[in-house]
Amino acid sequence: xxxxxxxxxxxxxxxxFRRRFMLLVLLTLFFILFSRAFFIQGMQKxxxxxxxxxxxxxxxxxxxxxxxIYDRNNQILAASETVxxxxxxxNRVKFKNGDKKKLANLLGIKIxxxxxxxxxxxxxxxxxxxxxxxxxxxxxxxxxxxxSTEKDYRRSYPDQEISAxxxxxxxxxxxxxxxxxxxxxxxxxxxxxxKKILIDARRRVVDNLSEVRVPVDGKDxxxxxxxxLQHIAFQSLKKTINDSEAISGSAILIDSKTGEILTMVNYxxxxxxxxxxxxxxxxxxxxxxxxxxxxxxLKPISIAAALEKKVVSVNTKIDTxxxxxxxxxxxxxxxxxxxxxxxxxxxxxSSNIGVTKIAEKLSKKYLWQTYSNFGIGNLTGVNFPGExxxxxxxxxxxxxxxxxxxxxxxxxSTTIAQLxxxxxxxxxxxxxxxxxxxxxxxxKIGQRVLSIKTSEAVLKIMESVTExxxxxxxxxxxxxxxxxxxxxxxxxxxxxxxxKPGERKYNASFVGIAPxxxxxxxxxxxxxxxxxxxxxxxVVAGPIFRRVVSEALKIYSIPQDGIEIEAEIDNDKKEI
Length: 576
Fold this sequence. Notes:
Layout (H helix, E strand, L loop, with lengths): L1 H42 L1 H12 E6 L6 E2 L5 E13 L10 H9 L3 H8 L6 E7 L1 H9 L5 E10 L7 H4 L1 E2 L5 E3 H5 L1 H5 L3 E7 L5 E9 L7 E2 L4 H18 L3 E8 L5 E7 L18 H4 L9 H11 L7 E3 L4 E4 L2 E4 L6 E3 H7 L2 H8 L4 H10 L26 H8 L8 H7 L1 H4 L3 E2 L14 E2 L3 H12 L19 E8 L15 E9 L6 E8 L8 H4 L1 H14 L7 H13 L1
Parallel strand pairs: 2-10
Antiparallel strand pairs: 1-8, 2-3, 3-4, 3-5, 6-7, 8-9, 11-12, 11-21, 13-16, 14-15, 17-18, 19-20, 20-21
């Protein structure tokens, strides 16, 4: 009996322990749940509400339409077209037999690349951006779960490589990366909008919420470029570079009265419609960005400085000797002996010795100031990214050889755009004009840098350069009077200098004005290292001027001013 009572007591005690233990466990679990609930509801309330909101509420971006870029005649140079972007939710995607291969083929990628994209831990990725709508429709027709499309825009450039350096290009995000696209990005871009939607756990749209911000489309940009002349200039430049086996070339045509840029071309070029995996070395607009020693194309400015100072006249005779002239340790040479010639003939024959002897009559400061007044070493006003000011050291740093070499275009460097602007005083009775690329920019009043008398005298002298006996008869245009100056400058190569005879590289240049009686156009051209045929500026660059400006004169209906002169020449030939 006692044993039985003892057993019952032990059983009772064990049961009591179990009840207490279970109660303790339950209380512990309750405390844990209560603590967790308190932590979630009290301390993480805002975070979890935000997480829940973001999982069920989404902002869909509403893209603003990027503005177009037009030429002066409202011809499109850049525009946006509607395309689709292919999106993927890796955790939902399911392929049927053969679907993966079909998808890869439509996307234009390998199966291996597609598999790599599918392994991502992200919930949402882009399989491919900016796909043609036709391709996107074929992808959707496969009915692969987890794959959808989004509306997108792709920038299109109808002129391809012809206007690439002016217009530039935009990246996948729609922002401009080069050229006008970059410079006017804020103006072109506009402001993106959004609309708020409600989605379920499977990312399906349940409802469109009322919160919407309407996108504001970008504004259009109108350039001064003439697409017709741009095509002609590019093809002419391309042909010359290929025929002469040159490295590259650049050209700019401007309206001499307003400074408006009508053409701005470079070759080699690039196609902005093709996405570059590796940045092309030819993306830069070298008309604006690349400075070089312009050589003899600066001689008209040197002579203008001397005429303005009245140290010489147009008919002053200068003894250029037998083609060699030594200044200190520097030997200055001409292509051939010219003997005693006038200032006009110095420019016509491009005599380095003649210009040097004229520069001896001018102080360093005065020559430097004249160059500076003509825009050498200064920005052109074109408002284009990456523009170079060139190099023109202060006159106080010039050595004697710098003084004289500057007079015929060495020891200073300019861009081809800067060189075109430097000729505007000769076309505008002594007033220099800023360059303009955007139609909306105000036309600024030109600054006088030369007297009317001197500017007209130099312009008249430069006409002889394109006439018989001059260095640029290849630039002459039938029926029109043409003024200009050639330049055949040796290239300075770092570590080598100007090189030995037979190993030298040259820049062949020409700057011309037409018609000379009432100037309308100024065109500057430079060809880098023409290695086949001639390397003279008149022979290489002159024909480009002739082809492009001839068309410009026709397109803009500019009256002929050289018919009487041609008739006189023909009569002289008959009498002989």
